[in-house]
């Protein structure tokens, strides 16, 4: 009753007596490794314990390195972050531990695991394993992440039970599962959601396409009768020069420039809508059926595509849109010496 438990007795004459003891969840018996650091003893639950490593002074001096100011030990080819328990808990060293960090004494490393991360706890000495009764920390001490509880040892002294996950979080080595999951989700969202300024167009059967606005020089509309044919290429006189025209939908998917097909009429006059690009003093125009919109938003990339000239597919304004690789398309229509 003192620890919040209960005892129930039931007896049946001629058959026997049943004794039921209910123990609260806050009371548990766990095997633990007892270590010392400074003047105190600490218990490390064996469920978190992987192995023990003891380094003699000479070996420790050349094996323990510093990476960005943090000590590490190369264990079987992998760098193991080290946490000096004495420093973490701000303890005064005992007489036996005065030389621990002066590289003149052996170093005891308790290799532990916090979820998927491994690190080493440097302690002054390793004693023995014992089965301890876990007692919860008091209300005023529960906020200390380094400790999971306490235990009364056989000699009547108290040993604090180390919370390996809490120590990892305090030292910045391990993050809680919820925090890590949130960080992973944010990283995935950052990869899939990229803010861009896009020109949205539509042309023929290619459907809805997005073009990075930073690559667009001008948007123009020309009368259809001003378009001329020079050999296999369609051109138009534009700003005192000859502007070559290409069907954008024909450039996507590996097609050539192609002849301009009949476009929709705008009132009584047939118009050609052209996106003009300028590269190294050379202009080139791409014809589309419709200029839908200009948007500046974070787009959600849904995947890659195998179509030449298309960089990826994305959801823009709630609709699936192909994001065009205009640099590749421009290189395909201009001579290499004309493209930077």
Q: What topology emerges from the helices and strands here?
A:
Blueprint (H helix, E strand, L loop, with lengths): L5 E7 L3 E7 L5 E10 L2 E6 L3 E7 L1 H7 E4 L2 E6 L2 E7 H4 L18 E8 L2 E7 L1 E10 L12 E6 L5 E5 L1 H7 L6 H16 E11 L3 E6 L5 E6 L4 E3 L2 E6 L2 E7 H4 L13 E2 L2 E11 L2 E7 L1 E14 L6 E7 L2 E6 L1 H8 L7
Parallel strand pairs: 4-13, 8-10, 15-25, 19-22
Antiparallel strand pairs: 1-2, 3-4, 3-11, 5-9, 6-7, 7-8, 9-10, 12-13, 14-15, 14-23, 16-21, 17-18, 18-19, 20-21, 21-22, 23-24, 24-25
Note down, in words, how this protein is organized.
With 340 residues, the protein is mainly beta. The protein contains 6 helices and 25 strands. The protein has helices at 57-63, 85-88, 164-170, 177-192, 248-251, 326-333; strands at residues 6-12, 16-22, 28-37, 40-45, 49-55, 64-67, 70-75, 78-84, 107-114, 117-123, 125-134, 147-152, 158-162, 193-203, 207-212, 218-223, 228-230, 233-238, 241-247, 265-266, 269-279, 282-288, 290-303, 310-316, 319-324. The strands form 5 sheets. Strands 16, 17, 18, 19, 20, 21 and 22 form a 7-stranded mixed beta sheet that branches. Strands 5-9-10-8-7-6 form a 6-stranded mixed beta sheet. Strands 11-3-4-13-12 form a 5-stranded mixed beta sheet. Strand 18 (233-238) and strand 19 (241-247) form a beta hairpin. The protein is elongated. The N and C termini lie far apart (83 Å). 24% of the residues are buried. The model is unreliable at 96-104, 254-258 and 262-269 (pLDDT under 50).
């Amino acid at each position: 009753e003192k620890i919040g438990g209960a005892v129930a007795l039931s007896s049946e004459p001629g058959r026997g007596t049943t004794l039921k003891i209910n123990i609260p969840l806050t009371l548990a018996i766990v095997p633990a490794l007892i270590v010392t650091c400074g003047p105190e003893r600490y218990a490390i639950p064996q469920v978190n314990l992987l192995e023990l490593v003891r380094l003699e002074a000479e070996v420790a001096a050349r094996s323990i390195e510093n990476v960005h100011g943090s000590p590490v030990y190369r264990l079987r080819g992998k760098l193991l972050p080290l946490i000096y328990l004495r420093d973490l808990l701000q303890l005064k060293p005992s007489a036996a531990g005065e030389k621990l960090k002066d590289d003149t004494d052996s170093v005891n490393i308790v290799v532990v695991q916090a979820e998927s991360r491994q690190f080493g706890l440097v302690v002054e000495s390793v004693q023995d394993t014992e089965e301890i009764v876990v007692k919860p920390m008091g209300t005023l001490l529960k906020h200390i992440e380094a400790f999971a509880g306490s235990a009364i040892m056989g000699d009547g002294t108290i040993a604090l039970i180390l919370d390996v996950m809490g120590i990892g979080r305090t030292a910045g080595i391990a993050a809680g599962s919820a925090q890590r999951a949130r960080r992973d989700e944010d990283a995935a969202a950052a990869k899939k959601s990229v803010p861009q300024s896009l020109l949205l167009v539509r042309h023929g059967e290619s459907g809805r396409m997005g073009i990075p606005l930073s690559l667009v020089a001008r948007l123009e509309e020309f009368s259809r009768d001003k378009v001329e044919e020079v050999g296999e290429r369609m051109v138009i006189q534009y700003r005192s020069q000859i502007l070559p025209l290409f069907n954008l939908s024909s450039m996507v998917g590996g097609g050539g420039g192609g002849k301009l097909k009949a476009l929709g009429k705008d009132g009584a006059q047939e118009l050609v809508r052209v996106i003009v690009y300028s590269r190294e003093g050379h202009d080139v125009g791409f014809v589309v059926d419709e200029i839908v919109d200009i948007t500046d938003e974070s787009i959600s990339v849904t995947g890659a595509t195998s179509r030449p000239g298309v960089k990826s597919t994305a959801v823009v304004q709630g609709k699936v849109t192909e994001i065009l690789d205009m640099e590749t398309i421009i290189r395909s229509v201009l001579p290499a010496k004309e493209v930077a």
